């Protein structure tokens, strides 16, 4: 699966993909992440990519020309299944959206900055708008990294134990059960006996009960869904 991310701050996207599971996914050839610096597509001698908003108002707006040049150059090389714009106006990201996107081949992600991007980029090129929550960040880079991470870990073969993505919180509409590791007794704080029993069926029942209990307590809205 291939991701092309367009941004004015490419450095912000270096570290999130350089470690652990995402790094392994790249090394195994299961995911390719290409970060494009929007300024490289500016024809202006100062490499500027933004301008004042028509009609006034605070903040600068990213212009259509550099985005159009970059997007069209990429589209000339391959077809994209989705061109996603990261924005607080978008559909709120969740596991269902991640699952759907993990079956795609090529995804392009546009990161906004400053006041946002010219509306015409959204009208002409963007096929999906995603928000990571009801709060405003300084740009779309961290949201793009979050969405990319959530998708890549679902690609078959990325996680060493393939079942572990399926047992993630939200995959079955429930939060995860509590988990423990050694020691079994830490200063009198004990791991539940059932987990030490070796009885697989009883452990599975206990875990499911714990999932329901936790979801009821913390996210009853998920049960209503
Ligand atoms: N850009 C700024 N804030 C954002 C958010 N909450 N979600 C996605 N992109 C954003």
TrEMBL record:
Q: Which Gene3D superfamilies match?
A: 3.40.1280.10, tRNA(m1g37)methyltransferase, domain 2 (1.10.1270.20)
tRNA methyltransferase TRMD/TRM10-type domain: residues covered: 1-224
UniProt: S-adenosyl-L-methionine binding residues? 112, 132-137
So what family is this one in? Belongs to the RNA methyltransferase TrmD family.
Q: Does the keyword Hydrolase apply?
A: no
Reaction(s) catalysed by this chain, per the record, are: guanosine(37) in tRNA + S-adenosyl-L-methionine = N(1)-methylguanosine(37) in tRNA + S-adenosyl-L-homocysteine + H(+)
Signal peptide range in chain numbering:
none
Name the HAMAP family for this protein. TrmD
Question: Which molecular-function annotation in GO is an example for this chain?
Answer: tRNA (guanine(37)-N1)-methyltransferase activity
Q: Which organism is it from?
A: Sphingobacterium thalpophilum
Localisation per UniProt entry: Cytoplasm
Describe the protein's quaternary organization and the partners it interacts with.
Homodimer.
Q: Name one GO cellular component term.
A: cytosol
Its EC number is: 2.1.1.228
Pfam families linked to this entry:
tRNA_m1G_MT
UniProt function note: Specifically methylates guanosine-37 in various tRNAs.
Q: What is this protein called?
A: tRNA (guanine-N(1)-)-methyltransferase
UniProt keyword terms in alphabetical order: Cytoplasm, Methyltransferase, S-adenosyl-L-methionine, Transferase, tRNA processing
Recorded superkingdom: Bacteria
One BP annotation, GO: tRNA N1-guanine methylation
Q: What class of enzyme is it?
A: transferase
């Amino acid at each position: 699966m291939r991701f092309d991310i367009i941004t004015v701050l490419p450095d912000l996207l270096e570290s999130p993909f350089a470690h652990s599971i995402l790094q392994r996914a790249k090394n195994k050839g299961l995911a390719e992440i290409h970060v494009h610096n929007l300024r490289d597509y500016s024809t202006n001698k100062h490499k500027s990519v933004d301008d004042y908003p028509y009609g006034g108002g605070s903040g600068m707006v990213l212009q259509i020309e550099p985005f159009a040049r970059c997007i069209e150059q990429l589209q000339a090389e391959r077809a994209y299944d989705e061109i996603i714009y990261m924005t607080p106006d978008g559909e709120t990201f969740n596991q269902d959206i991640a699952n759907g996107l993990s079956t795609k081949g090529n995804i392009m992600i546009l990161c906004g900055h400053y006041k946002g991007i010219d509306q015409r980029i959204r009208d002409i090129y963007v096929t999906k708008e995603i928000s990571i929550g009801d709060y405003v960040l300084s740009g779309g880079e961290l949201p793009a990294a979050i969405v990319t991470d959530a998708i890549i870990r679902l690609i078959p073969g990325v996680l060493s134990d393939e079942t572990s993505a399926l047992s993630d919180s939200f995959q079955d509409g429930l939060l995860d059960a509590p988990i423990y590791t050694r020691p079994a007794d830490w200063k009198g704080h004990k791991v539940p006996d059932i987990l030490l029993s070796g009885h697989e069926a009883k452990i599975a029942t206990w875990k499911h009960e714990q999932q329901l209990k936790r979801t009821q307590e913390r996210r009853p809205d998920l049960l209503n869904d």
